[in-house]
């Protein structure tokens, strides 16, 4: 890895990072890059020449729409296939492995694997699957930037360790980064799955820079974006909205707290409470379908879920002044119904209701495989973190 020796070298590297980040957003001409960065045409030309030489950029005259008549400038665009990242999703429902390009798109097909309580055996199978995919698409070791692995939180991303997610006991305190790195010859980066999904949401072009992504399944995860950046916390633990209390004297949680939100508002919690009166309701989709068709009891249970969620969402927004609440997970099934109820609850009580509105919408995460979100963990290290130095540090010294 290149080591930067002075401030001039560091500035060169950061300028290249800025240029590549701008082109990642959309194809740009050299003149546009100079205008956006404030750098000279000569400096831009040198940087672009280096990036073209290593193959991460290409020249194109393809335009998304017509521009003014006359000679069209040569644009610079990212080469998505320059290198590949591996995305691994580890969850209570099972595992998924996929290959991801520089645009965050899945290369070929993803592979789903059944859940295993034995982490060692699970990682053996995951590593075999990764090698099989790389072989299938004829990708050698040098073509892989790294592995992004996501798991339910809390996760210590800095250490790459799964901590103590409820109902995930077999994986508690498991050193995922080290164990997966022992099986694969690539750098491994571990992150809370909700944080990775929030980053994937940002990369997909969502029209918000500050939002809360609620992932509601058997648990409740939160991916939090603030001013265009995913909030990770001091140790990379992300945010655990599901384990904030809405009742100080409420139900005891496996996390050690009482009255945790997910004990009341997760899909499994609402189903459990529903079945005490209506044992015929056994699936979340059944409850939602009934409410959609006018079943008053099922609609009331969704009202109750919205009331529980609103307590935490209001606190979150009063602290952070968000633009939007996005819904993902099992609760996004016909999620317009729950969102409508949640929006009504929140807008009646939120502090900022007289100043600005808080948007409520379904997340695009439902349309993307979780392994693609895992891949964004590595892409973030390339465009904003340590992998940029590894790949382009040598250019900064030239």
Give an account of the 3D structure.
It is a single chain. The chain is of the alpha/beta class. It is built from 13 helices and 15 strands. It has a five-stranded mixed beta sheet, with helices on both faces. Strand 8 (155-156) and strand 9 form a beta hairpin. Helix 1 (7-25) crosses helix 13 (386-396) and helix 9 crosses helix 10. It is globular.
Summarize the structure.
This protein is of the alpha/beta class and 398 residues long. It has helices at 7-25, 30-37, 41-54, 119-136, 176-183, 193-203, 262-265, 267-275, 284-292, 296-320, 336-349, 370-384, 386-396, and strands at residues 28-29, 57-60, 75-78, 84-91, 94-100, 106-113, 144-151, 155-156, 161-162, 188-192, 211-216, 220-226, 229-230, 324-328, 359-362. The protein has 13 helices and 15 strands.
The biggest beta sheet reads: 5 strands, mixed
Output mean pLDDT.
91
Structural class, from helix and strand content? alpha/beta
Q: Tell me roughly what share of residues is in helical segments.
A: 40-55%
Strand order of the largest sheet: 6-5-4-7-10
The parts where pLDDT drops under 50 for at least 5 residues are 1-5
For the record, give the distance between the C-alpha atoms at the N and C termini, rounded to a whole number.
Answer: 14 Å
Oligomer: single chain
> Got a strand count?
15
Secondary structure tally, helices = 13
Beta fraction: 15-25%
Shape: globular
Based on CA atoms alone, the radius of gyration comes out at 23 Å
Helix and strand run:
HEHHEEEEEHEEEHEHEEEHHHHEHEHH
